[in-house]
Amino acid sequence: MKCPKCGRELEEGQFLCEDCGEEVKFVPDFDIELEAKLSESLTSMIKEITEEPSNEQNIDIDDESIDNDIKEEIRDYFPIESVKFDRRLKIGIAVLTMLAGGCLAALLIAFIKEKKINTYEYQYEQAVVYAQENNYSEAIHYLERALAMNAEDLDARILLADLYKENGQEQSAIQIFRELLDMLRKPIQNVSQNTGQTISQEVEQNNVLESAEDTNKNKLRKESIYDKLLTIYEEQSDFVEMGEILRDCDVAGIVAKYNQYAALKPKFNKAGGAYDKIISITLSGNTQGFVYYTLDGSTPTSNSNVYETPILLEAGEYVIRAKFINMFGVESEVASERYNINLSAPPEPVVNFDSGTYNVPKLIEVFHDNNTKIYYTTDGSVPTKNSLRYTAPLEMPFGISNFSFVAINEDGLSSPIVNRTYQFEVHANFTTDLALQVLVNSLWAKGELIDIEGHVPNKLGKNQYRIQTVADVNGELYYIVYEEYLDTTGSVHDTRNIYAIHTNTADLYKAYKLDEGKYNLQPFME
After folding, report:
1. How do 418-424 and 279-281 pair as beta strands?
2. Residue 511 burial (CB < 10 Å; 0-12/13-18/19+)?
């Protein structure tokens, strides 16, 4: 069949010319049964009309009731030839009438058939038939015509996308699936009851009833569409597109099924905000991959810090921005959190003795909050958490000493440093130099030293002696002397030997420390 306007060759069943847009009208074949009935009726009518009527039928003249003259007059008015002509005329008119009726019936049949063919149901049924026969091209042809008549049938559009995929037209299938997802993701807006104005123009495009049943159907449709669309991209190894789709997907089952291809924003274990303590931040991705982050507010890249261990946030303000990249190279959007750590430094520790000169033994005590720890130094350096820790009262060292104390709380914040300088002296008959000389001579005499220089038998190094403090033992004052070994490298080692020398009599004892400022004395020669 050709287009009557431009002459283009048309396919069977095509009603519109694709070149000029001319509508093609044609009369389909008659219904055989109806045509037979019309033919039978037409034949019967012709036979009845063409039968030769008798004189009595054509001219109602009774020879017995009228005379011959009257008969002659009647024949003048109804000649035989005229009667025969009228009969033929009637036959012709009847035939033409029946032919016209037959043509009208045939046209009616053709119109009804054409109306049936040009229905959505007919086109859809034909598409299903061809699809079952795996004739996808014909199925697509009929389904496209069906959707041209009713584009609002979502299931028909899904079927068309399926047919495109089966026919190797993946891009056409992708286009339909994505259009459907866009439509199903946009909720239908109602008309404002107060103003009567349309809130959204999406109603006409989407036209989906928001009843509970329809909502559930649309959820199932959406999940199915996501699954089919992602399957196509998976077969094409287009992981970037899969990542973008999954990023906006609100169907939990789909995200879980294709989780390995997704690159979702990294999750922070703590929300941004203000904190009054030190916190640690952990970052995690939704699947295997790497989290990259920055602390200065800049956009993270694959060259940024790789998250491996918790990020410790101390006092100050931080802006952490993070990005996740999965094993397929798909990048997530950047997640960002701002933290403001407002920490209060602990109060400075309180020392029981102020700086000054002392002539009797003293124990230095430091008072502090239970939530803090005290650290100290004796060489004038700044104490930190790596310095000596204060746990009990300290003996005031003999001579001049410089203490620096600091309190550090659980958040790692340090208090102001407290400095103390002490000068501890006693009134004694024996000076410290004489007392130490008595000790060295006694050890040499005992054989523990090989000379008064402090050299030790069978060792290359030598011992040295240092007065640590002065202790009150039973009302008497004693120099407390620590013994140390100095090796050839210059390193000093504690020998754990302690001696006590009476400050007035120079009596010598072995000493054993019981506690700060408390000693047990034993005779030296034992």
Report:
1. unpaired
2. buried
